[in-house]
Amino acid sequence: MRIIIFILTFIRLNSIYGQIVCSVTSPSIISGNYAFSWGTPLNTWASMDLSISGNYITGELMLVDDGSVGNSPASGLPLSNYGCAPLQNNLTGKIAVVYRYDGVTNSTICWMSEKAKYAQDAGAIGVVIINRPGASADIGNGGGTSAPLVTIPVVLISYEDGAIIRNELQNGPVSMFIGNKTGLYANDLTLNTTQRLISPQFGVSSQLALNGNEFSIDLGVRAYNFGSTNQNNVFLTAKIFNPLGQEVYNNQIGPYQISINDSLDVYPNTTISFPVFSLPSYLLGRYKIRYEVSMDVSDDYPGDNFIESDFIMNDSIISYARLNESTNLPIALNYYRPSSGGTTYSQCAVFNNSNASRIAVQGLYFSAATGYNSGFTLDGEEMQLSLYEWNDAFADLNDPNLAFNNLSEIAVGYYYYPSDLQNQVVYSQLDNPVILQDNKRYLTCITTVNPNIYLGCDVNTNYVWNESYYLQPMFPISNDGTFFAAGFGADIVPAIAIKIMNSNEVGTEELTSEKIEIYPNPTFDELNVKGMENKNYIIIDQLGRIVQSGQINSENPISIKNFDSGSYSLKIGDSYSKILLIK
User: Fold this and answer.
1) CA distance 530 to 528
2) Of 77, 378, 491, 536, which cross-links 462 as Cys (Cβ 3.0–4.6 Å)?
3) Domains of the chain by start residue, with CATH
4) What is the pTM of this model?
């Protein structure tokens, strides 16, 4: 599917509003807050102003039916659910659920504001518009001329969240709360995803995190009191779970006081802080960070008392964007390019690590799309990959010396789309893997010179607090050669991922000579090497650590019985062989 996006200024989702929520209240299996944007009076909607305390609606959801026949070839959903004609069903007292134009089916073309007006005319008290995959999350003015006529609240949610709600509607009633809950409840503490610290990266290189000294996470969160009662016994908790689901960190602090309409920050290096998270060693896989807020009485609105974020420890991907649970590829739900300027547009990711020499950059994963009405496809389009040494000397984002004047391109690569792979993650290599240097700042970029191409972004990972805490550039963009260190903002993350390898394997050739024998492989406890007598060897584990060294002796096998089971590299000179140890 193709998308239309126009961004350098943009809207953030519900997290910016704090007390304004779009929340399923029942059934409990799907209850909780959902990310959304809403039709504001500032964007010409005449709908209820949700920024005013006490303005809200609550009711059952109902899918619209405009009488259209057949299904959409894009989504497979009934065309009647797109709401582009006067509705056939009675929505009195209900919150209407309608799908946004899917980008393909002509029968579903109408403005979001028109859909809302049809729902209002059918008696709806509010409207939930389900977005199409990969489209902008900004409801804006809803298009067309109907927005000033729509007086009921209208929200836009993601296609993925819409699927959850639609599936549950097949089982029975689903109720939702949309609006401002400030002062609505006596006891109401809240956390949101804008004000919390997360892992510095989502995809973390295990080769650079051999222990807690090499990788750790500073934790912090802000708690709000949106209730009508002062709270004097507030506790905040941070928990972290490893890939096996085991709790490896649990710290609770309190009690604290939060007055009505006030907040409390738990922040590193202050009087109220959590201990730093670190482990002696890290398992490969997905970790979960969970923040919780509680008090000595029951919360009247418990759906926003916790927030979670993940990070993945892995040996081949570095990424700020979220990675898919099964493929470890970057997730792109939205596609962006600058709204002004000419043709050259780059998305970049910054990398700097004190142990960077352990790894080498091989290439980049990325995704792209063209506007659905542009008439352009991706077939044959050229994308350029660049790896730069960023040699400008500056301390942080506040340093006036921050600049992009000393970029030294040290590797390049090109990708040519073999077909119209809209919204699909693709991979392209640099000309050669590049071993990085310790404590040097690098910039990896993907560039297009076609103004009709938009690049994928992850809008569900929020680095706002990380940016203000670490004060380091993370994912700049470039527009016609002018760089913007903060990119589109800390909550619009370029969905690019850096593919890496162990630097010990760069420039080596495998031991394949007929005169060389290495056996048994796999092995259980020892390894025989023939044809390389008196040569020095080293054995390297999957994290790049030298775990054993010595000299080849054809009469005495190499003992590896004390090693953990797994894959190792036997390196002799500039050549290597893979070893599999089984126990």
Assistant:
1) 7
2) 491
3) 20-180 (3.50.30.30), 189-314 (2.60.40.10), 318-504 (2.60.120), 508-581 (2.60.40)
4) 0.78
